[in-house]
Amino acid sequence: MKYPRLLKRFCALLFAALLCVSAACSETAGSPTREERLAAAREKYNEKTVHVYKQGKGSYKSGKINAYVYQSKDKTHWIINIADSLKITDEYEMEAILEVIAQSKYYDEDYYGPISFMKAEWIAHNLAHEVASNGGGTQQWLEAYMGESLSTIIRRSKELDLSPLESMSEKELKIYRMIELLLNN
Fold it and tell me: Where are the domains of the chain?
């Protein structure tokens, strides 16, 4: 099913707006502040619990969040793969993990974007997997918007790959920037 371009944009905006509403609803009076939640996430995810390694220099470590930096198949760019990324759903935990990655020698903000942008990628990735996996009317929209089958979307979103900015399509960049903007407001 094909949708006009305007409808695609409207749906993307609606999708991002729903993200903001759900995030805003989670912070009510009496709940921990952003700073308190981030501090708790940093205690859980830090250089002792997050392992960053590069293709040919290190290996997977059981019991840790593994961030594997590998070269694309065509050898044109480096990608950061976060294993078990679907298990992390809290945006503060995502941020704490990304901070550890950003402190590694393999990270370059000009190449991958700031932490807030990568967090937006992660959120979009988790949501795409959830929508593709859980049925409902949004699956057709997701297939049409992404131009991929549900099985491809599910397979590709099992683990998070943070790609360099230069390798992303305009569509991807717009989605991630919109989510990033909404999360920072």
Answer: 5-45+81-183
